[in-house]
Amino acid sequence: MMNPRIKEVKPSSKDFTLTLTFENGEVGIFDVKPYLDIGIFKELKDFGLFNSVKPFIGSIQWVNGQDLCPDTLYMESVIQ
Fold first, then answer.
1. Domains and CATH numbers, the chain
2. Which is deepest, 45, 57, 71, 74, by most CB within 10 Å?
3. Backbone conformation region of residue 68, classed left if phi is above 0, alpha if psi is from -120 to 50, else beta
């Protein structure tokens, strides 16, 4: 069975988390901080870029092309 996909994303630049709403109605908090020292994700330390995140084909994507696997987003989110 496939994990639910992203319907909505709200960034919180004060703590580099994302509030994710999944297609099944669950809401989770995903912490992006562990990724901010890795490759292309380093750019997201800039709040302007971090806040550019949008839902994209069941996952999320930032304006410069960074994205994360929808399964990772679901499995590593803290469901509220």
1. 6-79 (3.30.2020.10)
2. 74
3. beta
